Records
---
Amino acid sequence: MTLTYVLMQNLRRNTLRVVLTAVAFALPMAVFVAAISFVVALAQISADMEKELRLGVHHKTTLTNPLPAGMRSKIEALDPDRRRIAAVCGMRWFGGRVPDTQNTLTSIAGDPDTFPLVYSDVGMTAQDIEAWQRDRRACVVGRNPVDTYGWKQGDRVTLVSTVPPYLQLEFNIVKIVENRERANFFWFRRDYLVESMKDAGVDDARCNIFWIKCKSAEGLRTLQQDIDALFANSPDETKSEDENAFVANFTQAMGNIPGLMQTMAMVVVVIVALVAGNAMMMSFRERTRELAVFKAIGFQSGRVFLIVLSESIMLAMGGALLGVVPAAVLLWLLPIRLTGIGPMIALEVTRLGVIGSMAIALCVGVVAGLWPAFQAMRLQTTDALRKVA
Amino acid sequence: MSTVDIELRKVRKVYFKDRLEIPVLEGLDLTIAAGEFVVLMGPSGSGKSTLLHLIGGLDSATGGSVRVGDAHLEKMSERERTAWRSRHVGFIFQMYHLVPVLTAAQNVELPLLLFSMSSSQRKERVRTALEVVGLSDRADHRPNQLSGGQEQRVAIARAIVTDPDVILADEPTGDLDAKTSEEILELLNLLNSEFGKTILMVTHDPRAASHGQRTVHLDKGVLDREELNPARPRGAAAMVS
């Protein structure tokens, strides 16, 4: 028998309370892990985007205010020698859902000729590009909807738009994207959308945004200024920004979500510390006499301090471990996984989230156990024993 | 087998509560010979348990000296007393105070975790201690699977497993029926007569007191009187000053 064994056995003393405390620990920690995963995912995606040298051009007032399709040629005309621009892709929001489901996919129509160039990072092969350009109904789909709906390459799938004129369109999957940061996307050809809208009596070829693939960071910066200057004082003034800034603005338009998540995570940590502290105080009060006996048979005060503190840490770490599993399930089940908050989010429990939560649990265990452990260390053996003598 | 004598000189103990001085022991002198079985009696508040705690090094005297063998407890820090206690004193409590989630053997093994000893050496010591108290067949039982008498036997095994010089028992039969009490007291007698342990036992029960070689009566923190038990003659001389 070792002292660790004694500690483990102590956790079995009041099984129901330990289980309830661990669950009370696990659930908030699950929220904490999810919140941290969100913040980490956002930071990671922002970092990835910086490398892609994409410039987004949208209406100065709002993204939902569309721009004329002809702007593309005006933007291209700014760089006739193609020193700064690799390609320009006009895009329009479709907001499609699989019929009879509630999750809106990040479904966007893009120019068929330039989409593979502007989004070269999705990894389309020459064969994929040929299929995309040959098939008017071609679509490129991220991993999340594929996994959720059991799709595979070559399948014909149907989406119903959530924006007027609420078209129901059929698509053929020509490429499944494995990039984690593109896991929620569903891209298809804008010419197909425009023709389908025309068939429905809506003649509207406008775009919500033009994404420009630039050749250098310097080129991106100068283009940003040139484009906004070109359309200044026109009916369609533009705001150009790199992809990182675009995502940041997009998420901030929905509220300061990363900040909110971080605040929520902090609140969760405080709640958990209070729960664990209360449980440890109860446990200490119930075992005052037993701890006094430990001291009576020769356990030094410092060792008794460590016994109580270790129990608190074990309970906290165990609860945190239990919390990681519901966090993974939570992220999987939440509609957020399919719709994405912001255009580029793919949520999952990250290694950093798990390590972070365990580190937090360690701190919470120490903080929660510190006072009871201190009380145990200072316990007057004679007073505690006198109660029964 | 090891055994030591105990000597208390002009021992005072004062507790403070809300700035009020509460004297418990007032200049007590007491000598207990090595290998003696002494019973402490007296009304509640007379200082019996306090005396036990001072001899066991659980508390320090306000004045005077407490010597157990070569150890001058009044000169030792709390840390030193704790280390000394783990090797030289075995405690037995009225309510046994076993750890409910450990088996009888594991409870007995608990004090040995403080010693540099291999697992097999610890197991051997535990087996011997449980044999002495007659509970070898209950080694794997948890406290809630034992009777009160058996629990107290486990507590006694825990007290003797380190082979202490002194055994301090605070009303060890206070929670037991007459028959079981008798068995426990016989066991203490055995530890005293066969193993030569110096035993100091607090009790309110005159029948329990009849098992000791000498009964010391305390009243209001001073020695009231002492009685030798002719039925239990002692080898070593004891002296009340």
---
Amino acid sequence: MMAIRELKVCLLGDTGVGKSSIVCRFVQDHFDHNISPTIGASFMTKTVPCGNELHKFLIWDTAGQERFHSLAPMYYRGSAAAVIVYDITKQDSFHTLKKWVKELKEHGPENIVMAIAGNKCDLSDIREVPLKDAKEYAESIGAVVVETSAKNAINIEELFQGISRQIPPLDPHENGNNGAIKLGRSETLAWLPGRPAATGQELSLEKTPEKSAMLPPNGLWGVKCTWEGTC
Amino acid sequence: MEGAQEDPAESSSSVPRFAEPAGSAGGAEVLPPEESGAAAKKLCGYLSKFGGKGPIRGWKSRWFFYDEKKCHLYYSRTAQDANPLDSIDLSTAVFDCKADAEEGTFEIKTANRIITLKAATKQVMLYWLQQLQMKRWEFYNSPPAPPAAPDAALAGNGPALRLELEQEEAEPDDFLGPVRTPPGLVGVAAALQPVPTMPLALQNISLKHLGTEIQNTMSNIRGNRQAQGTGHGPPGEDPPLSSEPQRAEQPLPSDPSTPGKDPADSPKPTPKSSLTANLIQKAKRQNNTFPFFADGLTRSRTAQEKVLALEQQVLMLTKELKSQKELVRILHKALEAAQQEKRATSAYLASAGEKDRLELVRHKVRQIAELGRQLEALEQERDSLVQTASLREQQVQELQQHVQLLMDKNQAKQQVICKLSEKVTQDFTHPPTQPPVPPGAADRDLLSQQEKMEQLKDDMEAYRTQNRFLNSEIHQVTKIWRRVAEKERALLMKCAYLQAKNCQVESKYLAGLRRLQEAVGGEATECSELLRQLIQEALQWEAGEASADGVELSPISEYDEYGFLTVPNYEMEDLKLLAKIQALEVHSHHLLAHEAVERPLRERWAALSDLAPSVELKQLLRAGVPREHRPRVWRWLVHLRVQHLQSPGRYQELLSRGQVREHPAARQIELDLHRTFPSNKHFTCPTSNFPDKLRRVLLAFSWQNPTIGYCQGLNRLAAIALLVLEEEESAFWCLVAIVETIMPADYYSKTLTSSQVDQRVLQDLLLEKLPRLMAHLGQHRVDLSFITFNWFLVVFADSLISNILLRVWDAFLYEGTKVVFRYALAIFKYNEEEILRLQDGLEIYQYLRFFTKTICNSQKLMNIAFNDMNPFPMKQLRQLRTVHRERLEAELHELERLKAEYLETRNSRDPAVPEGCTSEDEGEGGP
């Protein structure tokens, strides 16, 4: 029996770069020119095989507008991976991407896998962000990078396959746990002061289910519980 | 109900009562009232029908009779015909009589033809018209046989409806008084009257219905032959016929009025027997009657002769007796004289002596002398009398002469008077200025004028009758129309109800399919294949249905009245079925609510003239504003909130500000413009002006409130306002009202603080109102604010189906954010059981993603929100908000502090950090 691993993934990026479209293409293989701007967040799942495992992606799609950034921690908290999207036709969106990377490094889970998606590659004739820039930057932060087109279904599967590959295979010792391991759903401290942010290559698993079960329901909202551990 | 059943019987029996005096005046029939009633009920008689083509066009005499069961007026060539030529459907007919047409002419107009008929007299015509009206009314009044057992919901208002109509029927129709039944010309009696003669025998034969004509002839012949062949009626006939011979044998003197009595006296055919059978019977009976009567006469001949002979003998004997009596009388007289003589002679003979005898003779002589004197005196008297007579004669003659004279004089005087008066009239009629007209011409003129006047009077009378009749016709038709409209409404209601039922059944079926699908899972069995097929079929239904019934029975349309897609656009295959189920449920709820709930609401709204804050208005708004009132009500609600901010020209001024300088938010607004309600046709249609309006409203708002500028979500609020109010300035003020007056400050600001506070407040309220659900969610570590944040920010614009959404907004615009809390709680309560059933956090999240759209019973949701969630004091809400705001701010401060601390620590450790990339990043981003 193939082990199912649940991977929480959040999508970040400037408004209108196509986060929801990428999710929509990945999950439903469908493209809509006009998807209602996400407010708060939306949630979808998709399971894909990876090696001898099944990866069930729990995708949290977030709002892009800057003022919703204050809500972002609750989405990327406990995420195994983050897909940071920019629009290759908008330099601004690349800047926003860098801000997100910075925030993840500062406040995100320590071993979060980061994947950079340069969306709208079907519009390469009005490109503003050269692929070279993106590649260089991704390399510098140890992230996966790929140019995608949700509209033409280019590299969407590959994007998530790239993430899957970055997730280290199951520790055989953990196999006793019902054959599945919940990665990223543990309420790991999102941010550990004084610890260097880990790149994907240095991923290590931390499982603290007991702790998460203790959390009071109303503590799920907002920053309080995120910061609990630090106090 | 009982009274209603009595009514028609009364109305029908009242007619013959009126008609009866006419019948008895005719002297023909004296019938018991019930029988006369039955006879009058049978509407039949001879009428002339205008028809034919070409040269044979003209009036034809036809026998008309009415069939109550079908409300058809049949006609045949004669009353004795077995098969009618044709029929006229009276249920859809209207009647008309024209004053300027020939006397007795009237028309029956049905949907596809006009039949012109002529009755013998005007009275007969009016009788026919009134009877036809009555029959038509009776037909409509008779309770229709329900095709199926009425549903409980409909049975409720069914009787009320009927009762209402019966009452209406009871009101008198006093346009045209009841017309007396013209004796002999209508009714069953008329069947025995000879067919009105026609100039041409051929003309009376219907060419149009040649087949029926032949059949009728055949049946007549057959009837005759049978009658002749069997003599005393055909064998095996029914009882009414067997009584015939007895009655015929009665030695009744042949009275001209008896034929009329015959059919009325004879037992009535049972209503079950068909009309044609009745006619055949009648024909046979008539054919039978004559031979029987002749037979009877031959039998009685000898007796009568005897009587006659005896009578003669009696007469002779009486004469003889008389002469004998005379003889006796003469003999008596002779006897008397003889006795006197005998007495005288015996006295003479008895006188003994001569003296006595002399004395006797003397006495006689004296007597004779006396008589002679008397004679003389009388003669003298006579002479004198003759003299006086002649004298008188002379006097008379004189007087006669005198009279003659006077008469002459008188005549002369009269002549003078005549001449004078003639002169005077001449002077009058021909004033001296006019040239004298020959007296004959004047006379003729006068005569013709008088004639004309007479004609005009006749016309007037005719028109008056026509007018009266038409009035009654209009009255009747209106009544019928109203009744039919009521019926139609009832049927439509029933139809909607059935459709709703159908929708529910269909949705249940689909839900069942879904369950099955889930249960079978991915197993590739025969069963799952079948299931897949069934689901495919079910999803295809809609198209087929639409083309099949095609009528305006409110089929599920793709878009609702505000342009939202009715079938939620779930792209995932497994949710398509669910979407269809939802659409069906929504539709069925809509259909059910339409009559039962929305109608009274509409009436209440229509009755509400002036809008003023009140408890009643609050209740009305909570129940939802009908679509036709919504723009007006919203405008008023918005005005109530923003009147202190409004100033004339403010909107235009804000717009012009945007033209001078681009607002920083303009880019984001532009980006979201075409992403607003992608499922609404008003925003997706490329020719629609809604996106342009929306752009202007949002830009104006970004200038109106620069601290907020533009926040994603405001586009939805403005779009809803636009969809309802249509006019952009009103929509703008609506947006201002929501953001600046209803929502707490900082709701859409850069930090969204108040929005976050409200999420915590909601958590508290959920814990208080739905502890079981919250325990369940806590157990599965589900954080509801992922879902509910959106609800509050856009006031459910993304979540609820449009008709519920707008109801929420109706109350929200009046009562404020409390309504949002109430509904947020109600939505969870509505689906509580469903959520409790789910035992996995992921599944719960999946469910919460779309579960708001599955709510279709707005009534139920509203009841939960405003009743089940009570008590809901505003004070509590305010307190919770204050508490959580303080906490949140404290946390934010703490966060800032920790952040700063961290940065400090890191900076101090910075040289030790081996990763070059992060510091690079640091440098680029800059703190």
